[in-house]
Design a protein that fits this description.
heterodimer, A: 411 residues, alpha/beta, D-Maltodextrin-Binding Protein, domain 2, 2 domains, ten-stranded mixed β-sheet, 16 helices, B: 383 residues, 4 domains, two-stranded antiparallel ribbon, disordered N terminus
């Protein structure tokens, strides 16, 4: 008996690499270094890429939540230790505008058929293909179907309807607060503002320049709407992040919130959630009647570093293998994949409806990350009642202008 | 005469200073031997502290970025299910040189980065602004005027951060001294076999990584978290700890006291082992009470250690970072170290972050000056 077990183990050891190499038809040899953020779908991609390693091909993959800082340093160096870097809406504009990423038009043409590359996966900036994306994400409305039915509330389509629904839900005793929101001061809060501001038709910059135009009617209206919504949230709202709001839902403490699609499946996780099957997903509410859903669409993908020291052909093939159709088919529910092989589930409904409703992509200007930071650093003063909306927006503009001047975006 | 720490004479190479006259030396080593002993650590300090510090100062007087120009760019990104969105916008793009490489700007800016971080101009405006009338045109009282000034000053990132940093340093320092001393006295007075486990347990908060400790505090006080739920059970009603400046600041300060008290404790506990028993016994014979013995023998004996703890803790407290990061509440409690982190990561400006870091170093030096001067005098005077 023991001998059979050992034999089986030895056989497994020999078979495993065979299976892996069978799935990897890479031409070329050498070394590919990759860096990315760390969350489940990226772990999956990392393992897929690493399985392609053989005697002639070395794959190093670094998963780290500090990837943004590290990648920025690597790209700014004379030679990058990473050939492939993971990018998203927020990171690619700045790196592209600093000339740190390389176009991959030729490689896309060369490998398009071999790896069934789809046009909807390509990020193009000014005629150059700068990244290959694999998933999308967005904040959209999560709501408790049972409570809305109980109180005879139709699913809200606008934020005014959300406010009306929240007023009715105040009487509901099973929940603590009608609404939740990822209003944690800093990055999260700024993201909520950007969604609302773009939903109000706001423009971040004066036309044709990098000068800010946030202290506008749309800016003030967005802030005022956020303050009205906050009245129906936990008094701790300005310290609660995505995970905290997800838990409020799971514990049955709130009835509605706009939350990230990547958290949708967690609502039905029986190990954590008390509200399995009770939460539905739909487009983010509009900031005003007839406007597009007040949210922004996000994507994640991979780019080639301009200063890479490896083989770009080989590195590109690694992207293709990590994001292949087989990977999507075998792991349908891990992400909202961009490949057409992806079968939408109820957890991707909110993103789909937001996109169909015309929700914009997160802005692609290289200076937007500074705007995002300045918003997060200042609008809390208004929401906490320390300043007027105009004062805090003036602070945002002043702080951004200072930073953008130093970076040469504003003369 | 108070016993003093040995080994500090003002002559190089003196290994046995004359206790009665610090300028005299009883025994000396040859200069060569002395240098051989001291050399490696001096080299390490130059290599690992002085050179990086000079590097940071160098960075802080420059500014760098990639040269950009605003051009019309068509970009397309995926939406969902095969849809893509194409937009045409005027976007800053890199200016390329003849080899197709982006042009980098590297300019000397002198003190400009320091000026933008500390914003002395903003401070002067906040201090000198005319506040004689309220927004409604009524004459403003002193309290209103001061409040307005406070609001305007703390609205500037640097001064707001400095305010809480100093508050944190000056509130936690006396607390850790008092609690550390009480803890040390308590452990010192229990039976011997209990001391080991007690010391270990008391040291635990200090061993825990700050970011983990901060996160635990955050998780303890969230909505429906253990403490909030417990208070509700006890009939205190719903308490929201993260809703305003007072509670968040209190939590951060309590965390600081909880985290650093063990440090004061372990130093003072070690000091207690060296209190001369004959002096204590003589005091008891003279009829001194417990409090008098603490007041006149133990505390004076530990005075140098108290200075040492204050010195180290002020340095640490000035660099408070993790709780501010974890509570995400630079809205309610900011710190200088967080400001540096913010400039580096969110403004992506390492020159300005370097200036901010140097300002922190200068701040620590100013803060430590009185303590250092006092220690120097005590060592020199031998009193």
């Amino acid at each position: 008996m023991k001998r059979i077990v050992i034999l089986a183990m030895v056989a497994a050891l020999f078979l495993a690499p065979a299976i892996a190499t069978a799935a990897c038809e890479v031409e070329g040899s050498g070394e590919v270094n990759v860096i990315s953020n760390s969350f489940p779908v990226l772990e999956l991609i990392a393992n897929t890429m690493k399985a392609c390693a053989n005697d002639n091909l070395k794959i190093e993959y670094k998963l780290t939540t500090e990837h943004k800082e590290e990648t920025a340093q690597a790209l700014a160096a004379s030679s990058s230790p990473y050939d492939l870097v993971q990018v998203s809406n927020t990171t690619i504009p700045a790196w592209q505008a600093a000339g740190q990423l390389q176009p991959m038009n030729d490689l896309v043409d060369k490998y398009r058929d071999q790896y069934k590359l789809e046009d909807s996966m390509l990020i193009r900036i000014g005629g150059d293909i700068m990244a290959v994306a694999f998933q999308v994400n967005a904040q959209h409305l999560f709501y408790r179907t049972d409570l809305l039915e109980k109180h005879g509330i139709a699913v809200p389509k606008t934020y005014d309807e959300v406010l009306a629904a929240a007023e009715k839900l105040k009487s509901e005793e099973s929940i603590e607060f009608p609404l939740g929101g990822t209003y944690k001061s800093g990055w999260n809060l700024a993201q909520e503002f950007i969604n609302m501001f773009m939903g109000m038709g706001g423009e971040f910059f004066k036309p044709g320049t990098a000068e800010p135009s946030l202290n506008s009617e749309a800016g003030v209206k967005a802030l005022e709407m956020m303050k009205k919504l906050m009245a129906y949230m936990s008094p701790n709202a300005l310290a609660l992040d995505t995970t905290a709001i997800m838990q409020q839902f799971q514990q049955g403490k709130i009835a509605m919130a706009t939350l990230w699609a990547s958290r949708a499946a967690k609502m039905d996780d029986e190990a954590e959630s008390k509200v399995v099957g009770l939460i539905e997903f739909t487009a983010a509410p509009s900031a005003s009647k007839g406007a597009h859903p007040a949210t922004t669409l996000w994507w994640d993908g991979f780019s080639l570093a301009k200063n890479m020291d490896g083989d770009r052909d080989l590195a590109f093939q690694m992207i293709m293998l990590g994001l292949s159709e087989e990977v999507v088919k075998a792991n349908n529910d891990v992400a909202i994949w961009l490949r057409s092989a992806y079968k939408p589930t109820r957890f991707s409904k909110g993103v789909a409806e937001s996109a169909m409703g015309g929700a914009p992509s997160y802005p692609m200007q290289p200076q937007i990350s500074m705007v995002h930071a300045a918003i997060g650093n200042n609008i809390g003063d208004f929401l906490a009642g320390k300043e007027s909306a105009e004062e805090s927006l003036a602070d945002v503009e002043a702080e951004y202008t200072k930073a953008a001047k130093e970076k040469g975006f504003i003369k | 005469m108070r016993p003093r720490i040995q080994g500090c004479s003002y002559r190089l190479g003196c290994v046995l200073p004359n206790l009665n006259n610090p300028r005299k030396c009883e025994a000396a080593v040859k200069l060569k031997t002395f240098l051989a002993f001291v050399g490696p650590s001096v080299l390490a300090m130059v290599g690992l502290i002085a050179i990086p510090l000079l590097g940071v100062i160098y960075l802080s007087v420059y500014n760098s970025h990639v040269k950009t120009e605003i051009v019309e760019v068509e970009s397309s990104v995926p939406l969902f299910g095969g849809l893509t969105k194409t937009t045409v916008e005027k976007v800053p793009q890199p200016v390329l040189d003849e080899n197709g490489q982006p042009v980098k700007v590297w300019e000397y800016v002198g003190g400009r980065n320091y000026d933008t971080v500390a914003d002395p101009g903003g401070l002067v405006t906040a201090l000198t602004k005319d506040r004689s009338q309220t927004a409604d045109g009524e004459p403003a009282g002193l309290a209103q005027r001061l409040n307005g000034m406070y609001r305007d000053i703390t609205d500037i990132d640097f001064w707001g951060a400095l305010e809480f940093t100093l508050l944190y340093a000056f509130v936690t320092t006396p607390c850790i001294l008092v609690f550390g001393f009480i803890l040390a006295m308590a452990v010192h007075s229990v039976i011997k076999w209990l001391r080991g486990p007690l010391i270990f347990a008391s040291l635990l908060p200090f061993i825990i990584t700050p970011v983990v400790g901060s996160l635990s505090i955050y998780w303890l006080f969230l909505d429906n978290a253990v403490i909030a739920a417990l208070l509700e059970q006890l009939g205190a009603g719903k308490v929201y700890f993260l809703k305003d400046a007072i509670t968040i600041r209190t939590l951060i300060i309590l965390y600081g006291v909880w985290h650093v008290t063990p440090f004061a404790f372990v130093i003072l506990y070690a000091g207690l082992q060296t209190v001369p028993q004959d002096a204590l016994q003589a005091a008891m014979v003279d009829g001194a009470t417990y409090w008098q013995r603490i007041r006149f023998i133990i505390i004076p004996h530990l005075r140098a250690l108290f200075s040492f703890i204050i010195l180290i803790h002020l340095m640490d407290a000035y660099r408070i970072f993790e709780p501010v990061l974890v509570f995400g509440s630079n809205l309610f409690a900011n710190s200088l170290q967080y400001l540096t982190y913010y400039i580096l990561n969110f403004e992506d400006n390492y020159s300005k972050a370097a200036a901010s870091a140097i300002l922190t170093v200068i701040g620590i030096c100013i803060l430590l000056l009185p303590v250092l001067r006092r220690t120097y005098r005590e060592q020199k005077g031998g009193a």
